[in-house]
């Protein structure tokens, strides 16, 4: 399993909000209020209304959200600044068939599918192109506010007057804590040393990742010399159905009453990070299942040893993966399918040893499309855990650390971002570097992120072969290379098109149009570049042309462009002159002076 760890040089243990606040260099208290679109005061109540709770049901369509609740506006002041939040409900962040399960020693004890629609994304009023906000108002405001100058975390202030209590003060005029990321103490205030690297424990072929640059794209010269046909680079919308597991340490810290809302608040931030246009791809993180472990599980070992815990968790999550469901369609056993599994723990994890250290997360590199490797473990450190989880999912997508085998984050280049090996005051964890964009694009273009549903049905070499009514029937290549179907539709959320819908997603067997994101600007393709140099001087070669998503560039949560970003054409097709050296002979001659098994 090829794994990559994520460490935080600012990490410190804490057992309560009060203790955590004592570690911060500074924080402020603020009282957010609900306002209208023009900033006029409406109410001190900022928590979600219970009337918005609803039960997800296979038979019943999703109830419509109250229009007044689908968009919300809040106002607050802190650090000498005034923040007016413009928020839109994030309804697709959870699967239509989302369930919460509580597991004891004997496995599943009870589950429910009652959901609070209380997770929002948005921006600061009049700053939608330069700010990003991801907040949940389930029990007060939990989330992040990002401006051009700073990043802020906000959460309700727990009632400190209640000894040994995790109760939230839910009275009107509810106080909240707000603090800057830069307020987290620097590593020099702690005696621990922190290092990070990629360990290669066991990497099954063909996705073995070495310790240096595991998935960097091949140079152009190597691409032209390949005997395989070049794969088109197409920007397609992706949906990652996600299982989230919280261990018993999480239950002990957050309590049964608040753990569901807390975890979903964190995952809402994760989903927002993957919608950022800097990723260069459209990726939707969809939570299909939340498992809360109230007791240790017989076949799951979780402790300080991150490597062993990851190995155990990856095997365990595969054992509970439903192979009988098609995407969001839950079979009789009630188990929802997942593409990726995320474990959140309160253990102070460490690579290579069973004792605390600075490691925050560990994941299998490039394992997204392998059921036993599409997984990660993440240490809970508060709302900042969202960055750890997004970082580790990035490793599952084949991303390497910024500055490790690439130029991002190094001197003279752009600042290290979400895939930085360490989070420090100089890191920008709210967007993706150009290197991360290249890694995930290479991974998805390679085909490892496509045709997953066909592979589940017909084996690892299968892929989609017919693109008609995919929402009614999914057609795949069989082992005998025939285009076949078992009359099962594609999973809900699969990208589709119809005569009247240019871009949509499958819902209950039909292709329905995507909704729009208010106040956002979707990206548009710019002009194609001039054709590049031909790879051959004669005898037939290939040249390429690129275009970029910059006319306009996506902003305010807008979508990245869909379609071809690179195209190819034949060139210099005239035969080579008589007596000229054959190009294949020239390629072979390049290796004349390289020994093979001791011989030339």
TrEMBL record:
UniProt-annotated stretches for the region Disordered: 208-228
UniProt superkingdom: Eukaryota
Subcellular localization, as worded in the UniProt entry: Secreted, Extracellular space, Extracellular matrix
Ranges of compositional bias, category Polar residues: 218-227
Sequence ranges assigned to domain Peptidase M12B in this UniProt record: 238-448
Residues that, per the record, bind Zn(2+): 391, 395, 401
CDD domains cross-referenced by the UniProt entry: ZnMc_ADAMTS_like
Pfam family, one: Reprolysin
Gene3D superfamilies associated with the record: 3.40.1620.60, Collagenase (Catalytic Domain), Thrombospondin type-1 (TSP1) repeat
Molecular functions per Gene Ontology: metal ion binding; metalloendopeptidase activity
GO CC terms of this entry: extracellular matrix
Record-annotated active site: 392
Keywords: Disulfide bond, Extracellular matrix, Glycoprotein, Hydrolase, Metal-binding, Metalloprotease, Protease, Repeat, Secreted, Signal, Zinc
Gene Ontology biological process: extracellular matrix organization; proteolysis
UniProt protein name: Peptidase M12B domain-containing protein
Lineage, broadest ranks: Eukaryota, Metazoa, Chordata, Craniata, Vertebrata
């Amino acid at each position: 399993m090829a794994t990559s760890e994520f460490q935080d040089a600012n990490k410190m243990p804490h057992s309560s909000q009060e203790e955590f606040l004592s570690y911060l260099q500074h924080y402020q208290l603020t009282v957010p209020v609900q306002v209208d679109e023009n900033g006029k005061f409406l109410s001190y109540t900022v928590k979600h209304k219970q009337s918005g709770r609803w039960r997800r049901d296979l038979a019943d369509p999703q109830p419509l959200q109250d229009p007044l609740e689908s968009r919300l506006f809040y106002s607050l002041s802190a650090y000498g600044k005034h923040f007016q939040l413009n928020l839109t409900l994030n309804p697709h962040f959870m699967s239509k068939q989302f369930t919460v399960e509580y597991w004891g020693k004997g496995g599943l004890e009870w589950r429910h599918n009652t959901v609070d629609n209380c997770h929002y994304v948005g921006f600061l009023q009049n700053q939608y192109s330069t700010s990003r906000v991801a907040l949940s108002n389930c029990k007060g405001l939990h989330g992040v506010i990002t401006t051009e100058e700073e990043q802020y975390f906000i959460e309700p202030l727990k009632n400190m007057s209640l000894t040994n209590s995790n109760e939230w003060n839910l009275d009107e005029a509810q106080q909240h804590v707000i603090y800057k990321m830069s307020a987290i103490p620097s590593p020099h205030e702690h005696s621990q040393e922190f290092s990070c690297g990629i360990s290669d424990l066991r990497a099954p072929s063909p996705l073995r990742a070495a310790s240096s640059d595991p998935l960097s794209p091949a140079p152009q010269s190597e691409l032209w010399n390949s005997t395989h046909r070049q794969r088109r680079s197409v920007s397609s919308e992706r949906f990652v159905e996600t299982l989230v597991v919280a261990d018993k340490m999480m239950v002990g810290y957050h309590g049964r009453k608040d753990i569901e809302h807390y975890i979903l608040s964190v995952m809402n931030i994760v989903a927002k990070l993957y919608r950022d246009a800097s990723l260069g791809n459209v990726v939707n993180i969809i939570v299909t299942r939340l498992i809360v472990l109230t007791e240790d599980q017989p076949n799951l070992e979780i402790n300080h040893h991150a490597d062993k815990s990851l190995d155990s968790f990856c095997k365990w999550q595969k054992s509970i993966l439903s192979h009988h469901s098609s995407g969001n369609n839950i079979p009789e056993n009630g188990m929802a399918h997942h593409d990726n599994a995320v474990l959140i723990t309160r253990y102070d994890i460490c690579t290579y040893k069973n004792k605390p250290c600075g490691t925050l997360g560990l994941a299998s590199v490039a394992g997204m499309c392998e059921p036993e490797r599409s997984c990660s473990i993440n240490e809970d450190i508060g709302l900042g855990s969202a960055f750890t989880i997004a970082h580790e999912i990035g490793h599952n997508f084949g991303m390497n650390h910024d500055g490790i085998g690439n130029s991002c984050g190094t001197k003279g280049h752009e600042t290290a971002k979400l895939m930085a090996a360490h989070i420090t005051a100089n890191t920008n964890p709210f967007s993706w570097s150009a290197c991360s964009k290249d890694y995930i694009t290479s991974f998805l273009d390679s085909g490892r992120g496509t045709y997953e549903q066909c592979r589940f049905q017909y084996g690892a070499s299968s892929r989609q072969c017919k693109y008609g009514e995919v929402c009614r029937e999914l057609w795949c290549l069989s082992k005998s290379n025939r285009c076949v179907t078992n009359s099962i539709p594609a999973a809900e959320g699969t990208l589709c098109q119809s005569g009247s819908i240019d871009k949509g997603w499958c819902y209950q067997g039909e292709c329905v149009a995507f909704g729009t994101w208010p106040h956002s600007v979707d990206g548009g393709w710019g002009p194609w570049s001039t054709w590049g140099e031909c790879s051959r001087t004669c005898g037939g070669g290939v040249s390429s042309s690129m275009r970029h998503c910059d006319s306009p560039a996506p902003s305010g949560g807008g979508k990245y462009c869909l379609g071809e970003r690179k195209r190819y054409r034949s060139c210099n097709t005239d035969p080579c002159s008589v007596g000229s050296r054959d190009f294949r002979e020239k390629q072979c001659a390049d290796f004349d002076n390289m020994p093979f098994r001791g011989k030339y």
